[in-house]
Amino acid sequence: MTDTTPIATVLVAGSGTMGRGIAKSFAEGGFEVSILSRDPARLTDLPAGVTALSELPAAAPDLIIETIIERMEDKRALFARLSAAYGDAPIVGSNTSGLPLPDLAAAYGHPQRFVGIHYLQPADVFPMVELICLPETSETVLQRTAVAIRRTAKEPLIQRKAVPGFLVNRLQHAILHEAYHLVETGVCDVEAVDNVAKYLLGPRMCVTGLIQQKDIGGLETHALAQRAIVPHLHHGAEPNPILQTLYAEGKTGLSAGQGFYDWSGQDPKDVRRDATAKLNQLLAYLKSLVGGPVG
């Protein structure tokens, strides 16, 4: 295989919900897909066309996507293992949400073959995937990966600087950081924040995005409002104590039965299945209304 050969074989390292969703996307795109798991026997709900493995395959896959636990030492150990097994043969991508890509690539040892490939949950549903390159990433590697992602019916959101959090999570955490601060200081409750997201900001952004809407509304009003509001936003650099306390107490959300909301008595699989079904309906309607992402 040469660097111009289309990607055909994909290994997903990590068999959690995210890993299975990524594997499903590639299998439905016609790739030969395997998924690496410490306990493949428990994977009874794998998507059609996906093979479970307990060890790395003998032959190097064309593309390996890492989606294991978000701990630097675990990811670096895996990348070192991939380097020892395959050298620089495969393209390797990390699905990290916020760990520094250069540090991860250093463990692999071949940064010219390394990219960030960041999916949102559920991975098989959303129509876009963040694709992030390092300064050393070759253009051929970037473009071959982008072509493969497009074969899964998703548009790669290419970013040529690997800033912490990338594009999606930086925007998301900027909003959440302010939202948690407003809840913490008693301005509003979590239900008010979610109602604003679902019924005010969300619908408008679906139609005109974030920045295009400001052009439509007029930049004069926006510029003057920014002068008045931005100085009063919460610019603290520390993680919010409300969230960190919930995490420390084991109140980690739906699966634990308690987070910001009380989930006791609800089946996590049912809740997630219902949310995914509604998201699929919404995305289908949105595509019919405004079209798909622009590449």
TrEMBL record:
Keyword Membrane in annotation: no
Any one Gene Ontology molecular-function term assigned to this protein's record: oxidoreductase activity, acting on the CH-OH group of donors, NAD or NADP as acceptor
Annotated positions for site Important for catalytic activity: H118
Pfam families to which the protein is assigned, alphabetical: 3HCDH, 3HCDH_N
The 3-hydroxyacyl-CoA dehydrogenase NAD binding domain, residue ranges: 9-48, 60-158
Presence of keyword Magnesium: no
Keywords linked to the UniProt accession: Oxidoreductase
Gene Ontology biological-process annotations: fatty acid metabolic process
Domain 3-hydroxyacyl-CoA dehydrogenase C-terminal as annotated: residue spans: 165-263
Protein's UniProt name: 3-hydroxybutyryl-CoA dehydrogenase
